[in-house]
Predict the structure.
Amino acid sequence: MPNPKITGIVHTRDSAATLEAALASLAWVDELMVVDMESSDDSVAIAQRHGAVVHQIEIAPRIDGVRNRFVAKASGDWVLVLDSDEYLSDDAPELVQRLIAKQGQKHDAFALPRYNYLGEQVLLGGGRHPDYQIRLFKQGTVLWPDAHHTLPVVTTGPSRLWDVPPSHGPHIHHRNYRDLRQLISRQLDYALTDMYPDDPGSFDFAAYLARAHQQMAMRSEPEADGDLSQAMALVMAWDAVMRGLIHWDSLEPRPPLNMLDGFPRAAAQVPRWEIRLRRYLGRHLALRHLLKAVLARLRALLPKRG
Amino acid sequence: MSSKLLTVIIPSRGMLPMLEQCLNALGRSLEAAGVREQSTVAVVDNASHPPLPPKRIAAAGAELLRLDAHHCFALANNLAARRRPAKHYLLLNNDVLVQPETIGEMLALLERNPQVGICGARMVFPNGSLQHTGVVFGPGKQGPYHLLRTRPSHLMSRTDREFQAVTGACMLIRHVLWQELGGLVEDYPFGLEDIDFCLRARQKGWRIFCCQGSESLHFEAMTPGRAKLDEPSRALFMSRWQGRYTIDG
């Protein structure tokens, strides 16, 4: 049987710094589409150099709704979506074709494991690996809700989705952050541009402090990520505090901040058992997925209804 | 084909500190041979978890090819040769520290002898005993083995010598021969695909030499899980080749 046709889709906006690697890793697909949102750098030229069909669109507030429009234009039997700061490995062509050949009859969509990099270091703790992403699917079986950072939906049902075990490959390689400085800069940018409730009566600074406490307690996994794990936990805790202050600053009239009261209340809002459980699950994701796989196999042994 | 003289291919599954030492030694040897600019060093990350860090590999003067699934040694080498074609390929293990003179001597041997398609290298263990000076073949189930392995280094002459096979831990191969044979056979789990390649080269009329001028260091079998793959590889090799090679006297 001939290999099914695959369309690769990459969305760009001033993505020149990372696009070369993304498109080079997709050189083997049958059709390559780049959807560009008014880039002012070399993104379009790079896309053209790689033989991509380039679609120019206006800057959209949310990428997710836009994805559906261009997935529908793809001529491939299967669609592979990459972000412009992601790339695939050198054995991806073989692994993707093998995956489709072996599992494509039983499944319509695959959630691929993803390696997230901060600088040179891959982040493994805190659920950052395998970090499944639904990126490879049969044409017409996956839709993105038109909202920020929401998960795509497999329209043929969750049983037609398969989380590809990391040992089977392929992975998505995601260059999240060049360094810690870039992470801090982006977090602050998100915090400053986010929307906050405008009712002063419902503001509770202790809730932000609780989130900071939670981040420090649960994100820090030196066994998985070493010192960087502690640094990231501190950044995320700092992010929660910054958001609390930005929210407070946007209210009129400003309610009392009650910082000193907030600390003990914040600590009480995060139960110790929850911290311990999340840490355990975070550190033992492989075990969790193993159990999931065993359960799926047991379920498959049950007699089918209807 | 690329205008490069040499592509050095180093598969690695983790072992970053060892790999960096290997790359440092290799860099010195390429410099000494005067071929640094005409060479590409390709590290094939064979599904290390976490992946090898690209900048550290680049800082050591190499390009990184990444494999997400664990593939056999042969496939890793074949993929790199396809991606980075050159006039010669040097297959190199990540636990080999080449001497500054080694690459120059191997290249010179190929240049002097157009009928030689493959050149191996003399290597020693850290304690100074011989690891590889060429591969010979014993009768029956003995099959291929390293001549004088673990014996004192002075027992082996320093004269370059012809063999039926040399180890792929440090093996220089002409591109034309690589193309003629279609690279390494990918049926072997790990091990003896190099000896299979040498025997196929001999069938095509190519000659095989081992350079004895310098002694590189080979720690040997450092890759995790290597031992359990040796047995099926040997069984496959013997089923294909037993009775088809010459027994060395």
